[in-house]
Amino acid sequence: MRKRWFSQVQHTFAVWASTTLLTLSLGFSPTLAQDPFRATNQRQIGDNTEAAFKAIFEQGNYQAAVNYLNQAETSEPNEPLAYAMKASLAYTLNDDINAFGNYGKRTLEAGRQLIAQDPLRGNLYAAVGHFLQGAAALVREGTVRGTPQALSELRQVYAYLDKAEAIAPNDPELNLLRGYMDLMLAVNLPFSSPQQAIDRLVRFAGPRYLADRGLAIGYRDLDQYTEALTYVDRALQATPNNPELYYLKAQILAEQGKKQNNPSALKAAVENFDRAIAKKDQLPSSLVKQIERERSRTVQRVSGAS
Fold it and tell me: Where is the signal peptide (predicted)?
């Protein structure tokens, strides 16, 4: 459960891919940095931060991302997006909650410093920093002791998000991050409606394939498998080299096959688990183990359905 929460947190705050797809490898040398979210009114994002962003969210290549982020920490010390990704990788790769919290704090500090220069992104990443601090408190302190701080941080999250939204309500980066946050909360809290978050991701969020990925996750968690498959296929069409998307599609098909007693969906799930595992060398070892466990359970269900 804790890993699933952090997987959702990771894809909530992170900084996802640019509209121009590039093939990344450990030897890729970035040139002019581009804004990965906006076609107009672009912001300058550092070369290494952008390369790390693409490595994770276009290619699912975490090892390449680590190299780029290590360089970004020196070359781009004022970019909050880099610290947000560092926080994610600290937990995803090393299960290091202390580093996760520390980089969350640095995300918050960098976001606040950016407000004078770029109020939209500054307020947005101050919100992300508080979000990460709240998640760290829940894991470090446990649900009972950590909830008061997490709720306090969440109030700060939405205070900063409201400030960012007052500046540019249709901004793609804002709507991507807020859409992910709102949808994650809506599908996990009783009496919450996900529709507003879904509308935000459909209408305003960018880049498109990351919005589609968020919608696929949301519809998966709402047990709406037809819609989930539609959106994950759209994301795969744009970024076909990312093994995490095959894992997501496999999860959707496995749940559909289990709950609808559909052997064809289960077999298709196994095929997509295999496509994800084929690139296991570039994924976190903990994620690979999780994929293999889910594949094994699905294979057992296929045998039982035969």
Answer: 1-33
